[in-house]
Amino acid sequence: MIIESKNLFAAGATTFKSKISQAIAATQAAKTADTVTISQAARAALAASGASAPSSAGSGSTNPIDTKLSEIKSKDAMSRTAEDMDYLYAHDAKLAAIRDKENHGPGGLTSSEVDYMQKTIGFVNTMANLSPAEKALYDKAVASGDSQAVAGIGQIAFIRTMGHTAGGADGTTYDPINTEITAENIEKYFSHSIVDPSGKAQALFQALIRYLQNNPTSS
To answer: pLDDT at position 104, please?
Structure first.
């Protein structure tokens, strides 16, 4: 299988033609309630730590915020509303911190942060397709500030969501899930699995090749 890109790389994201549903775009910051018994920020912190926030209607063993968060996270991406997304950012402190880092902090998100965000928001969980060693490579590239190499690894993680068969050079096929991320394999296999007339995908692959050549790994 060869993935096609529709020349939509705006904001650093690649849009692919695939059977995978596109993730929701509702990511507005949640509004703070005017009057509550315990502040929303405090409730979010308590929810993140696993503690129970007191309820204005009396004490109980079930935290209604945790219940609501679990209910939203159990939905598939296309079933979530803008209000659901607002609630996630208002009450999941870890998710809110990741969003703030992505919007304001230098560098990029680590593999674990991307993994958590993808799972929580309902995006396709591409990070699950990287081995521990590949996640370490991803994090090393993030730390180096090489955003294009990071995006190149992300493209490979996405290719792997399509299964065990993808198109390589000269009409060949290969198993992307069990093919190691090396400069040679990118040239021979991965770079042929995305068709992108804009050339952006290939530029990211080439950036990753250069990064790997300049940062050889040792097993």
So the answer is: 74
